[in-house]
Design a protein that fits this description.
It is a single chain. By secondary structure, the chain is of the alpha/beta class. Helices cover about 35% and strands about 25% of the residues. It contains six helices and twelve strands. It has a six-stranded mixed beta sheet with strand order 7-8-9-10-11-12. The chain has a three-stranded mixed beta sheet with strand order 1-3-2. Strand 8 and strand 9 form a beta hairpin. It is elongated, with a radius of gyration of 33 Å.
Amino acid sequence: MSTAMTDRLAERSAMRRYRSWRTVLAAVLVVGLLGGAVWAAGWSDLLALDPAEVSVTGEGSTVDADAVRDVALAASGTPLPRVDTAAMHTEILGLRGVKDVEVRRAWPSGLTVTLTARVPVAAVPDGDRYVVLDAEGVLVGSRSSAPRRLPVVSVPLDGDPDVLSAALAVVAVLPPKLAEQVEQVGATTQDDVETVLRDGTTVRWGGQERLELKVEVVRSLRKLADGADVIDVSSPDLPVTR
C-alpha cells in the first residue's frame, strides 16, 4: 500500500473519530442545558411563587377572599411549574360561597385565581337563625336576623327538597327590582309557590315551569292592574287578578 493511500486512510479515520467526539460532546451539552433548565425551572428560586404576584378576583359578598388567598399562598416559594394547581382548585372549591374557580399560572412567578361566587337569593328560618341559600339551595351564610334585602322563604329546611327547590327557583329568576319587593315566599308543594310583596300584593306562581314568561306577565299586570291584591300567573296564558 502506498504512503499516500495510508495517509488518506489515517485522515479518514481521524475525521470519523472527530465527528464521533463532536456528536458526543454536542449530546452532552444538550443534556447539560436541558438538565440545567429543568433544575432552574423546578428547583431553583428563579420561578418561585411570589406572594405579591398572587391575584384573587371575583369573590363577591359570599366568599372569604382571605381564605382563598391563604390556600394560594401556601405554595409560596415553590417553583411555579411544581405548584399543584389541580389540588389548589379542589381545595378552593370546597370553601363556602365558591361556585367555581379557575387557577392559572401567571409566569414567571405568579398565580391568577378567578372565582365564581355563589349569589344569595333567599333566607330560610333555622331555629333562632336564618340560613342564606343560593338558587341551588347551597348554604352561603348564616345570620342572627333576616337579611334586609333578601326574601324569607317559609319552607322547612328538613322538608321536601323539591318544594324548597321550586321556591328558590322562583326567587332566583326575578329581576332585581321585583326581587327587592319580595318580603315572603311560601309553598306547601312544588306547584303552589307564592310570594308576598312588601306592599301586601300576593303573587301566585304555581310551579317553576315557564318562569321567564310568568315574570313578564307579573311585571305587566303590576302596571295595568295597579292596586290588585292577588296576581295569579300559575297559568301565564290566562292570568288572574283580583
